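Page 42, continued from yesterday. The earlier attempt failed because a stray header line got pasted into the input along with the sequence. Redoing it now with the clean sequence only.
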Amino acid sequence: MLEFIRSHFQFFGGISLIFGLVFTFCFYKAGLGLSFPVFVTAACGLLILSMRKLSLPVKRFTLFLCAVSILLACTTVFTANGVMQFLTVCAVLLLLDLSLIHQTAKDGLSSCFELLLRIIKLPFGVISAIGFPFADCFRAAGHSRLFRNETLRSVLFGLIAAVPILIVLLSLLSGADMVFSSVTGRLLDVVFSSDPFFILLMILSGFVLCYAILCAAAGMSPGGRVTDVLF
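This time it went through. Structure tokens are written below.
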């Protein structure tokens, strides 16, 4: 299952990108009001789409967990208590993790201990799979017709190689000239404190997190070894 996800990066990467866009749309400069149940509903929908792509029939208990998650997320609209909202978010995230683990467990979960073990393993699997979206993205790009163009690849590699050189030059010039240092500092403040930067950062974070979660869950399924993710 893990290799299937990684070899079909176009689909699962697209699912992860949609997740990142929804995450940014719901939570950029927004609280846990109506945006939270919208986000949870979208996450459940993307989970079902992913399972269908994996040819895994959506189980009834998975649908029940998704329904409970959405209903529980709706309660954040009716309270402004920070503690209650925090506990609700934790409960919803736990239910979503449980639905993903239950759905990818083809052999079923024989005991509560096994379920608890998989829940504990999942965050470590996610951390270990953080590099997968970048590696699979570059691999998919390398197989595309656009990046097979030698001229385009040379230009891209030249731009990438110029970034560290530009950083070194800016550092040297900033240390040698106070006026240039002031201008560079203001420019960096504008770039890294602007709204587009944080929007792109949120989209990227949601994309990476969603893809890593799918890979980690697949690594714990019977069709894939968790060692494929953890090591």
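Notes: The chain has a mean pLDDT of 78.
Reminder to self: strip header lines before submitting.
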